[in-house]
Amino acid sequence: MNAKVDQQTQDFKKQQELDQEALNQRMGKIKQKIMVLSGKGGVGKSTVAANLAITLAQDGHQVGLLDVDIHGPSIPKLLGIEDQVPRMGQETIYPIEVATNIKVMSMGFLLRDKDMAVIWRGPLKMGAIKQFLKDVEWGELDYLIIDSPPGTGDEPLSVAQLIPNLDGAIVVTSPQDLSIIDVRKSITFCRQVKMPVLGVIENMSGLICPHCGKEIEVFKKGGGQRMAMEMNVPFLGMIPMDPQVVEASDKGVPFVSEYSETETARAFEGVIRTLLAGMGEPKNKESFSANKPEAEVSQKRDGATIKIAIPLAQGKLAMHFGHCEQFALVEVADGRIVQTTLANPPAHEPGVLPKWLHEQGANMIIAGGMGQRAQGHFEEHGIHVLIGAPSLTPDELVGKYLDGTLETGDNICDH
Questions:
Q1: Considering the entire predicted model, what is its pTM?
Q2: Do 283 and 317 belong to one domain?
Q3: The domain spanning residue 381 has which CATH number?
């Protein structure tokens, strides 16, 4: 009896190894793999995922879109392909192709009845997701966008475990506190499973009145941006509400292509451009850790040159940004300091320093304390802000930052 059990165990382990090898081979043909997450339902996560895929395809990239929402798949409806059925081969599933360069797979394609409820526990869901990754003929892709259901449960955890070299996650929220409370957990989840956070998108951020043209803050505004700053992750931008998003979704047509001249479509595209600019080429995932802000690590990839601005008072980091006497501009190349120069800033007036530092070539600031409005101005100029650093010399700060030992605390002048 024991011999039979041992053989079954060995056979199971062997099959697991073969499955993982096949999955790795399949995923190895895909350059960038991105998961779209949210801790809260109803924030437009699937809409963001679908329009991200469409925008990438319109730029000429080969794109895959995988819907791993087992219980409530919505990607087929958003793209108007809910009646399609994938072709099955021998141990191979052929995804539904949209245009010439988008491949789509979803549980929605496999349900005999669109009203059928999928009543599965964790192991069955993980098995289905593994099949979607391992058995679907994705081919060679530039991007695979993975749309995950709300929360931090079986589906996103399965993806993180099955694809340990994910390029990262996009976290979608709406501005109100109720959404942000849950979405913060998504960022914590990413850090716990060692998955980079590529950025936060604030969806449904205000409404442009079609009659008077004024902006209405339906769900408030700026909550997602504040959360990103507080949790030290990149903020990708705000997407306003637009009734035409609902119209496009119900019609099954991509919003960014159907309504490309609208402000909301331009906001979608601006967010995506910011995302891609921050990603660069595929990165070595071993360089990420739970206590390193993802935007910073992406800037330190091999061969990168960055210039870090440090506000100084008496030769050390000025704990209050507005009290700085001069700036140290530290140039970093290939993960080491190559040059440090001192520069006297212009008068501290709103909007002046971000423009000035941008002209100096700075793309990052290490600060002690800085108000949220000032942080927003720097981000608008492409300068990432790291808050809560200790009062050390520029070389000490940058050295600790580069080797991953820089510890940051609270923002001491957040006003």
A1: 0.66
A2: no
A3: 3.30.420.130
**Euclidean distance between CA atoms 276 and 286, whole angstroms:** 20
The residue to which tokens 């990149």 are assigned: 234
CB 306 within 8 A of CB 295: no
How far is 79 from 381, CA to CA, in rounded Å?
35
145 and 233 inside one domain: yes
Query: Helix H segments across 117-251?
Result: 122-134, 154-162, 177-192, 223-230, 243-251
The residue whose two tokens read 């957040």 is: 414
Confidence of residue 143 (pLDDT cuts 50, 70, 90): very high
Query: Closest by alpha carbon to 175, among 213, 227, 210?
Result: 227
pLDDT at 378: 82
Query: What CATH number has the domain bearing residue 238?
Result: 3.40.50.300
Instruction: Report the pLDDT value the prediction gives residue 287, as an integer from 0 to 100.
Output: 32
Which of 115-129, 201-215, 218-232, 399-413 ranks highest by mean pLDDT? 115-129
The confidence score (pLDDT) of residue 293 equals 43
What is the total residue count of the chain? 415
* Residues 280 and 336 occupy one common structural domain: no
The burial class, CB within 10 Å (0-12 / 13-18 / 19+), for 317 is buried
Q: Are residues 277 and 310 in the same domain?
A: no
Res. 104: pLDDT tops 90: yes
Residue 348, domain extent: 303-403
**Number of structural domains in the chain:** 2
For residues 193 and 44, state if they share a domain.
yes
Please name the helix (run of DSSP H) or strand (run of DSSP E) that holds residue 50, with its range, or none.
helix 45-58
Contacts (Cβ under 8 Å, ≥6 apart) of 389: 317, 366, 367, 368, 397, 406, 408
- Burial (CB < 10 A; 0-12, 13-18, 19+), residue 288, is buried
Q: Are residues 383 and 244 in the same domain?
A: no
pLDDT band at 290 (very low <50, low <70, confident <90, very high): very low
What per-residue confidence (pLDDT) applies to 285?
A: 34
Residue 296's pLDDT is 43
Flag whether 196 is in a domain. yes
Look at residue 7 and tell me if it is in a domain: no
In the numeric block, which tokens belong to residue 394?
Answer: 């520029």
